[in-house]
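call fold(seq) -> tokens
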Amino acid sequence: MGDWEIDKPMGHCFGSGREIKYGEEYFGALVETEEGLQRRDFSADYWQAQSPAVFCHWKTKLPHPEEKKKIFVDDEMLMAFFERLADATDPEKINFRFVLAMILMRKRRLKYDSSERQGDREVWRLRVTGDKQLVEVINPHLNDEQIDQLSSQIGQILQTDL
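ret:
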């Protein structure tokens, strides 16, 4: 598995280049590029005027450097990321989705139900808590180091500790 690097917020709008000031609301987004998913930040005014094409997004504020990091990602947002990746075939996205599933299981939003072999891959069936719905996730058989690395990178993307 290759390294998957996502930039931290840079304090400027990717679309206009305008500086995003501390305390200002902006949109963080994941954008599909030839190199894979990349983080891009957009000022609220650019976002509303241009509606850039993104894979997924979230609204946040640029924190002051001395301000304690706030967790702004809730379980619903994590579930939305997880669901958006349901049809992914790219190995990076399959790995990303699997680690999200592990995080959501730890948060008790998903519960392991069963697994089966489909050809050369193992597919887990997970139950959405409070629902009878089952979702499937491919187990890419990541090692502990790969899981830790992806968890860290997901945390960097979402600006939170996972």
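The first helix runs from residue 44 to 50.
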